[in-house]
Automatic annotation (TrEMBL):
Homodimer. Within each dimer, one monomer is responsible for RNA recognition and catalysis, while the other monomer binds to the replacement base PreQ1. The lineage of its organism: Bacteria, Pseudomonadati, Bacteroidota, Flavobacteriia, Flavobacteriales. This is Queuine tRNA-ribosyltransferase. It is an enzyme of class 2 (transferase). Substrate binds at D92, S93, G94, G95, Y96, D146, Q194, G221. It comes from Mariniflexile soesokkakense. Belongs to the queuine tRNA-ribosyltransferase family. Residues 12-372 form the tRNA-guanine(15) transglycosylase-like domain. Its EC number is 2.4.2.29. It holds the Pfam family TGT. The gene is tgt. Pathway: tRNA modification; tRNA-queuosine biosynthesis. One of its GO terms (molecular function) is glycosyltransferase activity.
Length: 376
């Protein structure tokens, strides 16, 4: 994997770059649509490619390990082939899902024993077996196994957990060195910074992670319920320490405003379920603010879904029709809203990139943040 920094904003810490892997070039800043179980919910791969056009999507080790199970993905020749997606994929390690989804779990130095949220069966994730599973899934970028602490989190717990995440990182790296690629393309490995909302811990963790010398670095444990200001403060602490010549991935973030603010702090990569999950509940993100399409006020509004027309659904359907689809609970409503939201998120990061390259990112960002704060 290769990262090239193309431009740095002079009035913020925003950067524009490219990440190149064997599955192509990723222009950064990038938003990665979440495809948890081998599908970006509600969108065909063809629409994803032609209409939304992300250079990379995300998959989840936790979910794919439980279903369809690692051996099936391996038999298919890896996740790219299994799901018919020939661009980049990143897999999260399960270090978040195991805490947020499994019925109960026991965290020990060795690893995490958890109960499946699907059938109640017991499983164990260790840094070693999570590396093996991610080798079998075959994403282009794979993540370290970590513990994502909740918010709020007691200082001593956060500190102990951060040190365990660091020891787990060493085990991930040692184990990766012993395993080989399962397919004919490379895999890049990203370690994850933890440390809850404590500046001194974040600083320590960023130093430890930077020292690992990986080709890219990630920030975890944020967007777990803390106020946005605390999230930004933590991003600021760690981007000061992380090497400039490696991509920085802020995991699980966030709203369109969170994304722009974190780009301004030097983040290059994002993922979040928000555009897809909220779409299925009738929430649309636009440059003018958010819309609850289920609201009665749209009942007879025959204007386009979004007159900016980023994707075809924006101009081919009206707000009144989309509201009707939600009222009668038709699948097409969720599909239209998902395509709209993902189209908007990808437009937003591409536009951010353009403004970084043009040198007027800061002014554009401040204006967008103001506009997007509206509820329409
Ligand atoms: N997704 C969102 N936050 C996190 C985190 O802290 N760790 C991992 N592995 N994934 C995440």
């Amino acid at each position: 994997m290769k990262f090239e920094l193309k431009a740095k904003d002079t009035q913020s810490k925003a950067r524009a770059g490219t990440v190149t892997t064997d599955h192509g070039v990723i222009e950064t800043p990038i938003f990665m649509p979440v495809g948890t179980v081998g599908t970006v919910k509600g969108v065909h791969q063809r629409e994803l490619k032609d209409d939304i056009n992300p250079d990379i999507i995300l998959g989840n080790t936790y979910h794919l390990y439980l279903r369809p199970q690692t051996h099936i993905i391996e038999k298919a020749g890896g996740l790219h082939k299994f799901m018919n997606w020939d661009r980049n994929i990143l897999t999260d390690s399960g270090g978040y899902q195991v805490y947020s989804l499994s019925a109960n779990r026991k965290i020990k130095e060795e690893g995490v024993k958890f109960k499946s949220h699907i059938d109640g069966s017991y499983h164990t994730f260790t840094p070693e077996n999570v590396m093996e599973i991610q080798r079998s899934i075959g994403a282009d970028i794979i993540m370290a196994f970590d513990e994502c602490t909740p918010y709020p989190c007691d200082y001593n717990y956060a500190k102990r957990s951060m040190h365990m995440t660091h020891r787990w990182l060493d085990r991930c790296i040692n184990h990766l060195e012993k395993t080989s690629l399962k397919y004919d393309y490379n895999q890049a490995f990203f370690p994850i910074i933890q440390g809850s909302t404590y500046k001194d811990l974040r600083k320590q963790s960023a130093e430890y992670i930077a020292n690992a010398g990986a080709v890219g670095n990630a920030i975890g444990g944020l967007s777990v319920g803390e106020p946005a200001e605390e999230m930004y403060a933590m991003t600021e602490v760690v981007t000061e320490i992380l090497p400039e010549d490696k991509p920085r991935y802020l995991m699980g973030v966030g709203t369109p405003i969170n994304i722009l603010e974190n780009i301004a702090l030097g983040i290059d990569m994002f993922d979040c379920v928000m555009p897809t999950r909220n779409a299925r509940n009738g929430m649309l993100f636009t440059a003018q603010g958010t819309i609850n399409i289920k609201n009665k006020k749209w009942e007879a509004d025959f204007s386009p879904v979004d007159d900016m027309g980023i994707t075809f659904v924006d101009t081919e359907y009206t707000k009144a029709y989309l509201r009707h689809l939600f009222t009668v609970n038709e699948l097409l409503g969720k599909q239209i809203a998902t395509i709209h939201n993902l189209g908007f998120y990808l437009w937003l990061v591409r536009e951010a990139r353009k403004h970084i390259l043009a040198g007027d990112f800061r002014t554009w960002k401040d204006q967008m943040v103001k506009q997007m704060d509206n509820r329409l």
